[in-house]
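User: I'm putting together a teaching handout on how multi-component assemblies are represented. Below are the sequence lines for each component of a complex, exactly as they appear in our records. Could you produce the 3D structure of the whole assembly as structure tokens, so the students can see both representations side by side? Please keep the chain order the same as the input.
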Amino acid sequence: MTAPVIFLYFIGSFVLLSVLGMLAMWVDRKVTARLQFRVGPPWYQSFADFVKLTGKEVLIPAKANIFMFVFAPVLAVTAAATAGTILLLVLTRGFGFQGDIILLLYLLTVPSLSIILGASSSGNVLASVGLSREMKLLLGYELPFVCALIIPALMGGLTTSLSEIVKFQNGNGMNIGSFAGITGFLIAIFALQGKIGFVPFDLAEAEAELAGGALIEYSGILLGLFKLAKAILLMAGPLLLIGLYFGGINFSSFAGVIAGLLKYVLILVLFVLIKNTNPRLRIDQALRFFWGWMTLFGITGILLAIMGW
Amino acid sequence: MNLKIKALKKSLWVYHLSGGSCNNCDIEILDCLTPRFDIERFGMTLIGSPRHADVLLCTGIVNKKCVERVKEVYEQAAKPCVVVAIGACACSGGIFRDGYQMGGPLNKIIPVDAYIPGCPPKPEAMIAGIVKLLEKLK
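Assistant: Of course. Below is the structure of the complete assembly, with chains in the same order as your input.
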């Protein structure tokens, strides 16, 4: 592929992922509302929020480092969209190379890093508390997440290419069908919950005690970009899990697309259920959870994958 | 009508600012956010930072200590941002209007877009007030 084609792919999948991600955000809010016996927001709520934020004034605090403060949300959106583009290319066209799950691991870390960058350059005390929590949480969930990436790589016959993992599953059945696959999938769900910042692990944006936490000083379009990055991550994260554990999406037939959609909805509903049935953890509890149980599960999963279960 | 204003009407983020109230209006605001009234139907959510705010819900007489703080929060809020005075005290001073600690009422300190009287106003009254305000918004 030449450069302009890749650029067109990027723009196309950026728009597609943004729209779908915002709809997924709405599904999350609507299901939450229904679980609390409320009516919930209308379907265009996330779009209205984003358009409203583009029309608001952008305030930059006097103590802020202006370049980093403005650059961080742009970085978050770009990294999330790049990860999403690669995932879409892998799932739709079988594009890929050795080591692309390592690249995806890096790219999916960047949105969290850019929240840390933006918060630390805003010069706000509450933001710095939020960013220290985000940093510890990042250290916490990265380790189990790496385990969750190693398991399918081992099961697919020692490969680090996502498209080969998908191809392996199309021949030998989905990874989720084995013990190692189930273990890996569970870990990956919790790690992504932390990455997206959903409720048991939303301590960086704790509204109750940190007043918005890491994003406290952001307003207008910059805040909108962070929300957009989150929406894209909500789309890209489950897509990665579909590739790793559910055998990808078959775009050649209508039934395959419907099946892919069902896989996505299943993962999204799991996210929302975990979000609504758990209170927020303290940072020490979150770290103990990730470095204790989740890493233990991860090592067990790797051993199971080596034994071929 | 402008698209951004249209979106603003559908997604009001509310910041709750207490300028020295007796806490009764604050409790009624929290009642208004409960599932019984479910204002998320209209896209309204409570947020924690004035930087994210579209509506400042102000309660209380704004006592002398609070005057500077209320001004500060209003300056920190990203515009366009509307201010709603909730309760008799914020609207006019109420029973405290002759008190020595009186620094307000609110409209002497920052521009107010809507007044919702009552001691305290019911959640229904707040929703009615906000709806009337939305019709005026341009």
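A couple of points students might notice: Residues 123-136 of chain B form the longest helix (14 residues). The first strand of chain B starts at residue 13 and ends at 18.
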